[in-house]
Write a structure and sequence with these properties.
alpha/beta, D-Maltodextrin-Binding Protein, domain 2, 2 domains, five-stranded mixed beta sheet, three-stranded antiparallel beta sheet
Length: 225
Amino acid sequence: MLKSHPLYDPLKDLEPISNVAVSAFALAVHPAVPAHTLREFIDYAKANPGRLSYGHAGVGSLNHLTGELLKSLAGMPDLVHVPYRGSGPATADTISGQVAMVTPAVTGALLEFNRTGKLRILAVTSPTRLIAAPAIPTAVEAGLPGMVSQQSIGLFAPAGTPKAIIEQISQATRAALADATYRQMLIESGFEPDIDSTPDKFRRLIGEDIARWSPLVKAIGLKLD
């Protein structure tokens, strides 16, 4: 999507095996921002066009696209994006008040920043509330039904790998995810385990992600060539 001549096609050159877990993104603001819900932030941003900015992990990152999706769905074209070299610096500058909002992946550390008041997470971008943070609403609940953004942590093999091997690895992955201790470790780190993933389900998930992001990438004219 981001390059005119990509090095590979994830659905043609790779064989999806298993989606181990997904990680949603957070829409988090500095505590001084006068908004305690995503809807309040949207109203505040619209009332102050061009005065608010959000930090992200770099141009073309999923953090960046998450912010641009929010701008598109909420009608906030004047929310200025500020690219950083990773989510860490972007989050640090939001905590210090250099930018109003940040769009990092949900992690255990980020949830701790929210708990201690260093940041205020207004919403998460998962379709349903997170197991690790059930008190934090989703952006969908705030009235943005298309505001879903998650990154997958999965296993792939080269195209042409025998199906028997693909299925063997997939079954082993499901067996690992059946371990409650392992699942809890993922949850505490901000991930949502995908205990029912199969090669076919993972392939469909990738196709859905491509269909979700391609129109936005085209609309904002984003290219990394």
